[in-house]
Amino acid sequence: MSSSRNAVVVRGEVELGDQRGRTLGFPTANLSIEGADLKDGVYAGWLDRGSGLHLTAISIGGRPTFYGRDGFRLLEAHVLDFNDNLYGETVTVWLCHRIRGQKRFPSLDALVTQLTDDIGACRRWQATGWEPAAADLHECVPLGTAMRIAF
Fold it and tell me: CA 11 to CA 102: how far, in whole Å?
């Protein structure tokens, strides 16, 4: 039996967003993913700013609660237990474990409840002990791209 794991790695510059996550208590680092072949949903993974890995809850999609079907696709990475400003930094985001698909929520309270549950799922996933052995990929993944990697 193989012990390899798969992840999708995205590298890009953190862009200023709507600041909505911050107002809800879940600030995010936003990366453009125009043209990337990534499945919409919520993932557990890691963010690397070149100085080590940080546990991250990641959303990919058009933010249907706020924009319906008209929102442009975006990667939003909520870095757990982290308070630094990442705007303008180049980061690498590892999408390691899919938690759920994207969905539209009927209220902000319902969204916040689900985000809290998603963070709990990320922490449970982290307890499995997997993190990428090749954190040095931060410099190897071409800027503005997504790559599937097997370990």
Answer: 22
